[in-house]
Structure formats: structure tokens, C-alpha cells
Design goal:
The complex is a heterotrimer of chains A (83), B (291) and C (386). By secondary structure, chain A is an alpha+beta fold. Helices cover 12% and strands 22% of the residues of chain A. Chain A has two helices and five strands. Chain C folds into two domains: 1-271, Thiamin diphosphate (ThDP)-binding fold, Pyr/PP domains (Rossmann fold); 275-384, Rossmann fold (3-Layer(aba) Sandwich), CATH 3.40.50.920. Chain C is built from 14 helices and 16 strands. The chains are: A alpha+beta (83), B alpha/beta (291), C alpha/beta (386). Chain A binds chain B through residues 1, 4-5, 8-11, 13, 15, 20, 22-26, 29-30, 47, 56, 63, 65-71, 74, 76, 78-81, and chain B through 1, 3-13, 15, 17-18, 21, 26-28, 30-38, 40-42, 45, 186-187, 189-190, 193, 226-228, 231-232, 235.
Chain lengths: 83, 291, 386
């Protein structure tokens, strides 16, 4: 939770299992807020996994998770802390 | 600056799809850009929100790339012979009507070699859900022509192009008696998830056709780019027409795609019909068949 | 365990082999039948269709034999004892699924009421030419059990045995009738349910944790489960490991398929059943099965009256073949005579086991009728002349 004060957060975020990714590009293309991009990094199989380029735009809608044929990414909503 | 900046609890849930998968068998065999895995997400989410008792859910598939779905699902799963998932599923369901039986297979498996079984299972209105993944090709065996391959597309056994009229699957399903008929594409993940859930909860023979990319064979042979290009084609060319007349939803090569829920009606299932019929005939002597 | 009295029509009847077979299946606890009409087997499913609704059974006439032969397997995994019934052309169609049942170790019964072949052949007349197909008909290596009744009474008795063997060895079992046995009407005694011994399905009774659907016990037979209990089984026709997950390797093949073959081969001692009459000290032994075993009797009796020392060995189990017994007899017998309504099928097994130690003569009949006992007698006497 270190960098939460400064950065604006979106409504949610993603979890990426880079090693499972096969670089199909579905998540990047169809993310409704276009907050994902393919990274420059390679995974062990030589694919470019996605990364959350613009975290504050992530709505946690999980469109990426539904689209991913390799179960390599999913989105989640931040829970509001109970006061 | 403020919150979104209010205190939030960043909990990291797991990907709930994984609860439905045999994770020890990952990675799966499907190609980069193949749409099958996408539909599995939809299926898993539909199951999750359906309220069904997962112990009672059985998945039956045939042979082919889509046929491999059964092997990856953490459910009672049956990977049967080519084309014969439906009769196996019929036996399974009629032996134990408490089971929720799902047939998940490909276009070639279900409508070529399995065509006869398809029309009879629909005719009988056996209570089961059929998820047919249509990638217009026989993928597993290297890209042969299928009864769904559009006119003009090439395949390894139609190298000069296919001239055979393909099936209009929603029309076929409706005319054989299916009570729920829908078509979506792998791009339409939310609609697909909703349709699968409706189909799961529907009594009778419910049918969902999902168009999905086969980048390695169908797309590559026909110079259609990769899986993502095919998904973009689905997005740009699909028109949602719920309640469309299924006669009109046939598919051409890279043409317009009509998606939607076309049929949603009620009819007694095979067992309902049987029990009602025999009760009438035998009166008190007949105990309704429950498995 | 004993038969369920609800299905057992105890009493003495005058019915044909097909009908007796249906009653035997019911007595054995079969409550799912999927079939397709084909002469001369149709009467089996017709009787099942008549009887099942009031005893809680499920009969469905499927769209073809291919569907029938796999619908029964779905029913088995749904928890039922299941059977299908056919004749030659349908038997050929069912071959892929007999292999599937063997590979997935799905206990079920396939009845073949043999008729003249090949192809459409002689639908209403007898043949015994599916015997090798019964053993080898599906592609690949596997073990299988096949039984041969020679009367309506045996059609009743042996279908029960077929179900019991299927459950004991988690294997498909074939019941090889022929048109004569199927269509002959004779006295059949159906005992009361408490006198009928039934083998229950060998359901796993241990904990679900770590259960392996294809891990065999010492007898090479794994335990069974059914869908709907939370086991999350995986059943596939692909070569698989003990979990049931596909494994594409020669090592997995050796481990699995060798066991499927050995399961029957090395348990043959407990499975094989023959009926012998005066084979001890015999000079000539007739090896027969099905209707031919009855036609052979007058021939044998006539030969004996004329002083020939003739024994009769009748196959109850055609597969596994009683190799050990034939080998034993081949040391003392001067000639085996094998009459069959085919151009030589089970005789090849006799020849294989005899391995040249003594004479083996065939009495072939192409089909369409039973042998004339005179032809069998003539062959017996010709043997004796050596």
C-alpha cells in the first residue's frame, strides 16, 4: 500500500500472470478505458505480456479477464474500507 | 485528489475462473489468439452465477480443439468419441435427471459427424445445454473444411475454396425443436456469459453458438490476420438482432454477423413428456421416472 | 447380492431367446437400454420397451446403433446398469464404442444376435460369423469377454452372467446369440429374485480425497464411481494416467493398455467357462458354441453308438478362449472337430492352442441355416479313420 497516497487510483486494478500470456492482444484492444498496453518485456515463451499502463483509468470491470483465452489476466474492483 | 483517494482496501481476490479449472493441467493446448479459452471464461462465470449445484454439473465433449474443454474443467467431465457427445449426454441425463448436463463441443464435431445426433437430441428436447463453438473449420486435425465453412473460404480439404452451402446453425437448431437458441461471438463476452447462464437455467434443449477465432488455421489460410483481427471483425460486423428470424441469420465469408437470442420458448422436456404420457396411460400403476 | 424382486418375472415360461434375454437383463438389474431395431434382435428391445415403464427402467430407441452404443455408457456413468442390442450390421457400427467402453473401463453389455453376413446378408437367418469381430472388432489392443448361449434358458442365464462379469472387471461384455437361439421358443424358468446372484457395481467406498478413477487393485480392476457425487471425474478415450488425464506417451500407453489386456487375460482362470461331456479319455473332441452345439449332439451320439470315443466341449465363454483346457486336451486327443456357422473363426483359436500337436478339422457352414448333423457326423467318423 506504499504508493497509494500520491497516485490517483482507479476503481480497480488487474492481476497479470505474465508467464501464461500468449500475446494475443485481446485485453489491450478491448479494454473499455484503454488502460492496458503490451509491455516491452518478454516472458519465457517470448511473448509480450500486458501491463497496466494507466492505473487510474482501470475500472476493475474484468473485461480483460473475460476475454483472456489463457487465464493470464483478470480485473477486480477495489473494496471500500468500512469506516 | 480526494478519493477515489479515500481509504480503500486493496484486496486481491483470485481469478474465480481458476476454481473451475484443473489448474494442474495448465497451460492448455490452444493456440495464441484462439477463442476457446475466452468462451471458457464466459462458461465459468455463467456457472458461478447460475446457482447450480456444481457437484451435479457434468460436462460432455467430443473430439476437436473445443472438445478439450471437458478435460480442463474441474467438473465431472467426459471426453467422448467424435460426434457422439450428445447421445452420451442423453444417456447420462436420462440415467440421472438430477444432473445438469452440458455438451461443449465444436462445429464439426456437433454438426458433421454429430449431425444426426444433434437433430434428434433437439427433437427430443432432452434437458441439456449445448455450447457449440464455431470456428468454421476442423482445427485439431489441421484445418479441414467443416459444414459451417463459408462459401469462398479455403481449407486444407477445400484448397481451391469451399463451394458447399454451410449450415445456418440457429436455423437448424430451431427447426429441430431447440427451446433456446442464441448466437454470440467470442468478442461478446458479456452477452455470451449471460446467454450461457440463461441456457443453463432453461429447461429443455438449449443451444448457444459462439463464433470464435481459429488463428492458426482458418484465419491464416484465409489471410484474415490473427485472432485479434478476427475478434475485431466480429466487433465491427456483428449486429444484435434479438428475436431475428433464424432463417435470415446465415453467415457468409467475412460478412455480416447477426447475433442475439433468437428463440426462447417453453416446451415439455423429454422426461416431462414421457412421465405425463405414461401417467395418463397407466394411471396409479405408473411411478414417475426420476432416475 | 440378490436380484431386485421388482423386475423379476419368476415362473416358467414358453418364450424365445430374445425375450428371455430381455428378462435376464431386467433380473440382472439393468434399468437403461438404448437400442435400434435390427433383425433378429429387435424383440429384445421390444420386450424391454414393454416392461420398463412399470419397473422404473428407461428405454430409448436412439437414432442409430452408434448413438445406442454410447448412450448406454452415459447411463452407466449416471449410475445405471445398461445394455444395448443389435445384429451384424449394427455390431459393426458399434465397434468404436466397444473400444471406448474398454478404454474407459465402462461396465456395460452389448448383445449381438448374429445373422448371415457379411453386410446386409441374411437378416432372418442364423450365422456365427461375428465371433472374431467380437474379440478384435474395435481398433487397438484391449481385453474383452464374450458369452455364447445355446438356448432361450441360457439367454436368460448368461445375460445375468454378462452383467456380473461387466461389473466385476469394469469391462464391456458381449453376449453372442444367433438368430436360431434368439428366435427359438422353449421353456425358460425364471427363478425367484432371491435365487438370482447379482454382482453389484464396485463403487469406491473410501475417501474422495486423492481418489484415482483408473488406479487398479491387485486384480487389475479399478473401482468405479458415478457422476454427481463431487468426484470431478475425467473420463476420456485418449490414453490416460491413473487420474484419467490424457498423457501422450509410449510409457502411458504401456502402463494403461497392457493393464486393459491383462485385466482379462490374466484373470481368464476366473472368467473362462466351458461345458464338457465325456472329454476325459476322448479320442475326438467337438468344440462348439451357440446353436451349433445343439446340432452337434445327434452327430456325437450317433458316433458314440458306433463306438467312437467322442467328447464335447462347449464354449460358454468364447472370449477369453479356454486356451489352457484346449492345450491340455491336445496332448491326448487325436482330433478336434470344430463345427461353426462361418468359414472358420473359433477353429483358428483351437488351431492356435493346439499348435500342431494334433489334428484340427473344421466343419464350416456359410450361414443361413444350421448344419445338417450328418455333416458333423461324417467329419467325426473321418477323423476316427486315422
Amino acid at each position: 500500500m506504499a504508493d497509494t497516497e500520491q497516485k490517483k487510483k482507479g476503481l480497480g486494478s488487474v492481476v497479470i500472470n505474465a508467464e501464461r500470456c500468449k500475446g494475443c492482444g485481446f485485453c489491450v484492444e478491448f479494454c473499455p478505458t484503454h488502460c492496458l498496453e503490451l509491455s516491452e518485456q518478454y516472458n519465457a515463451k517470448g511473448y509480450h505480456p500486458p501491463q497496466l499502463a494507466i492505473p487510474e483509468k482501470c475500472t476493475g470491470c474484468n473485461m480483460c479477464g473475460l476475454l483472456c483465452p489463457d487465464f493470464a489476466i483478470y480485473g477486480f474492483l477495489f473494496k471500500k474500507k468500512q469506516k | 485528489m480526494t478519493e477515489e483517494t479515500m481509504d480503500v482496501d486493496i484486496s486481491m481476490p483470485t481469478n474465480t475462473v481458476e476454481e473451475f479449472l484443473r489448474m494442474e493441467r495448465m497451460p492448455h493446448i490452444w493456440c495464441p489468439g484462439c477463442g476457446i479459452g475466452t468462451t471458457v471464461n464466459c462458461f465459468a462465470h455463467a456457472l458461478e452465477t447460475s446457482g447450480l449445484d456444481l457437484k451435479k454439473v457434468s460436462i460432455v465433449s467430443g473430439i476437436g480443439c473445443t472438445g478439450r474443454v471437458a478435460g480442463y474443467m474441474k467438473l465431472d467431465s467426459f471426453h467422448t468419441t467424435h460426434g457422439r457427445a450428445l447421445p452420451f449426454a442423453t444417456g447420462l441425463k436420462l440415467a440421472n435427471p438430477d444432473l445438469k448436463v452440458i455438451v461443449y463441443s465444436g462445429d464439426g464435431d456437433l454438426t458433421a459427424i454429430g449431425g444426426n445426433h444433434f437433430i434428434h437430441a433437439a427433437r427430443r428436447n432432452v434437458d441439456m445445454t449445448v455450447i457449440l463453438l464455431n470456428n468454421f473449420i476442423y482445427g485439431m486435425t489441421g484445418g479441414q473444411v467443416a459444414p459451417t465453412t463459408p462459401i469462398g473460404a479455403t481449407a486444407s480439404t477445400a484448397p481451391h475454396g469451399n463451394f458447399e452451402e454451410p449450415f445456418n446453425l440457429p436455423y437448424l437448431a430451431e427447426s429441430c425443436g431447440a427451446v433456446y437458441v442464441a448466437r454470440w461471438t467470442a468478442y461478446h463476452v458479456r452477452h455470451t456469459t449471460k446467454a450461457i447462464k440463461e441456457a443453463l437455467l432453461k429447461k429443455g434443449f438449449s443451444f448457444v453458438e459462439i463464433l470464435a477465432p481459429c488463428p492458426t488455421l482458418y484465419s491464416r489460410r484465409n489471410k484474415l490476420g490473427d485472432g485479434l483481427d478476427q475478434m475485431k471483425y466480429y466487433k465491427d460486423n456483428s449486429k444484435i438482432q434479438n428475436d431475428a428470424d433464424t432463417k435470415t441469420v446465415g453467415l457468409g465469408f467475412q460478412g455480416k454477423i447477426i447475433v442475439g437470442k433468437f428463440v426462447d420458448k417453453d416446451k415439455p422436456t423429454y422426461l416431462d413428456s414421457m412421465n405425463e404420457f405414461y401417467a395418463k396411460k397407466f394411471g396409479d400403476k405408473y411411478a414417475p421416472y426420476k432416475g | 447380492m440378490k436380484a431386485d424382486p421388482k423386475g423379476v418375472m419368476a415362473g416358467a415360461y414358453f418364450i424365445d431367446g430374445d425375450h428371455a434375454c430381455a428378462e435376464g437383463a431386467i433380473a440382472a438389474g439393468c434399468r437403461f437400454v438404448a437400442g435400434y431395431p435390427i433383425t433378429p434382435s429387435t424383440e429384445v428391445v421390444e420386450r424391454i420397451a414393454e416392461r420398463f415403464p412399470l419397473i422404473g427402467g428407461m428405454f430409448i430407441q436412439m437414432e442409430d446403433e452408434i448413438a445406442s452404443s454410447i448412450a448406454i455408457q452415459g447411463a452407466v456413468w449416471g449410475g445405471k446398469k445398461a445394455m444395448t442390442v443389435t445384429s451384424g450390421p449394427g455390431f459393426s457400427l458399434m465397434m468404436e464404442h466397444i473400444g471406448l467402453a474398454a478404454m474407459t473401463e465402462t461396465p456395460c453389455v452389448f448383445v449381438d444376435v448374429q445373422r448371415g453376413g457379411p453386410s446386409t446378408g441374411l437378416p432372418t437367418l442364423p450365422g456365427q460369423a461375428d465371433m472374431m469381430q467380437a474379440r478384435w472388432g474395435s481398433h487397438g489392443d484391449y481385453g474383452i469377454i464374450a458369452l455364447c448361449p445355446n438356448s432361450p434358458q441360457e439367454s436368460f442365464d448368461l445375460v445375468i452372467k454378462a452383467f456380473n462379469l461387466a461389473e466385476t472387471y469394469r469391462v464391456p461384455v458381449l453376449l453372442m446369440l444367433d438368430e436360431c437361439v434368439g428366435h427359438m421358443t422353449e421353456r425358460v424358468v425364471i427363478p425367484p429374485a432371491d435365487q438370482i446372484e447379482i454382482a453389484p457395481r464396485r463403487y469406491w467406498e473410501g475417501s474422495q480425497e486423492g481418489f484415482l478413477l483408473f488406479k487398479a487393485g491387485a486384480d487389475r480392476v479399478p473401482p468405479m464411481v458415478k457422476a454427481g457425487e463431487g468426484y470431478n471425474v475425467h473420463v476420456t478415450g485418449l490414453t490416460h494416467d491413473e487420474r484419467g488425464y490424457p498423457v501422450m506417451s509410449a510409457a502411458a500407453q504401456e502402463k494403461l493398455v497392457r493393464r486393459l489386456v491383462d485385466k482379462i487375460r490374466l484373470n481368464a482362470g476366473a472368467i473362462v467357462e466351458v461345458r464338457e461331456d465325456q472329454t476325459e479319455g476322448a479320442d475326438i473332441v467337438i468344440v462348439s458354441y451357440g446353436i451349433t452345439s445343439r446340432v452337434a449332439v445327434p452327430a456325437i451320439e450317433r458316433a458314440r453308438r458306433e463306438g467312437a470315443k467322442v467328447g464335447h466341449l462347449r464354449l460358454i465363454t468364447a472370449w477369453p478362449f479356454p486356451a489352457k483346457r484346449i492345450r491340455e486336451l491336445s496332448r491326448t486327443v487325436s482330433c478336434f472337430v470344430v463345427p461353426e456357422i462361418n468359414y472358420g473363426q473359433m477353429v483358428r483359436e483351437v488351431e492356435r492352442c493346439v499348435a500342431g500337436r494334433t489334428r484340427v478339422e473344421r466343419v464350416s457352414h456359410g450361414g443361413g441355416a444350421v448344419h445338417d448333423p450328418k455333416d458333423i457326423y461324417a467329419k467325426i467318423m473321418a477323423c476316427g479313420k486315422e
